[in-house]
Amino acid sequence: MDKYELSAGKGRTRVSLLTYQMGNDLIVCIYGENAHIGAVALGEYDHKEKRASCSVITRLGHKDDTVAQEAARSISRHTKRPVCVVAGMHLDKITAIEIDGILQNARSLVAQLCAALEGG
C-alpha cells in the first residue's frame, strides 16, 4: 500500500485520514475541514517487549494530541512497525458532542486502516 485515503462522519465532525508508506514505515495524517499540524505522534513497536509506545509533540494551544497519540499507538501495535501521525482538526466553538464525534470518527478510520493493512 503506497497511499490510502478515507473519511468518516459529516459536517463539522467529518474526519479524513491519508496514509503514505515510507519504506516499511507509515506516515498518517488525520484532519478535519480546517486541516493543520496540531500534534505529531511517533509510535514505535518494541518486538522484545511486545508492546507499542508513543511520543507526542503538541503545538502551543492545540488539543490534537489525543487523536495523534491514540492513533500512533494503535497503528504501531497492530502493524508492529514505526508510524508517524500528524493530527489537526480545528473547530471554533466546538461542543462536547462534536469532540466525541471527532474522536469516534478518528478511531473508526484507524480501525479501517488497520484492517486494510492486514488485508494488503
Features:
single chain; 120 residues; alpha+beta; Ribosomal Protein S5, domain 2; six-stranded mixed sheet; globular
What does this structure look like?
The protein is globular. The longest helix is centred in the C-terminal third of the chain and has 24 residues, at 96-119. The mean pLDDT is 94. It has a single domain (3-110), classed as Ribosomal Protein S5, domain 2 (2-Layer Sandwich). A hairpin with a 4-residue loop joins strand 4 and strand 5 (51-58). The chain is an alpha+beta fold and 120 residues long. A six-stranded mixed β-sheet has the order 1-2-3-6-4-5. Helix 1 (65-79) runs parallel beside helix 2 (96-119). The chain is built from two helices and six strands, in the order E-E-E-E-E-H-E-H. Helix content is 32%, strand content 36%.
Helical region count?
2
Approximate shape: globular
What is the count of structural domains?
Answer: 1
What is the average per-residue confidence, as pLDDT, rounded to a whole number? 94
CATH class division: Alpha Beta
User: Looking at CATH, which topology would you report?
Assistant: Ribosomal Protein S5, domain 2
Uncertain runs with pLDDT below 50, 5 residues or more? Answer: none
Helix content percent band = 25-40%
Q: How are helices and strands ordered from N to C?
A: EEEEEHEH
Supply Rg.
Answer: 14 Å
- How many beta-strand segments? 6
Largest sheet: 6 strands, mixed
Q: Beta-sheet strand percentage?
A: 35-45%
Question: Strand order within the widest sheet?
Answer: 1-2-3-6-4-5
State the distance separating the first and last CA atoms. Answer: 7 Å
Q: What would you say the CATH architecture is?
A: 2-Layer Sandwich
By helix and strand content, what is the structural category? alpha+beta
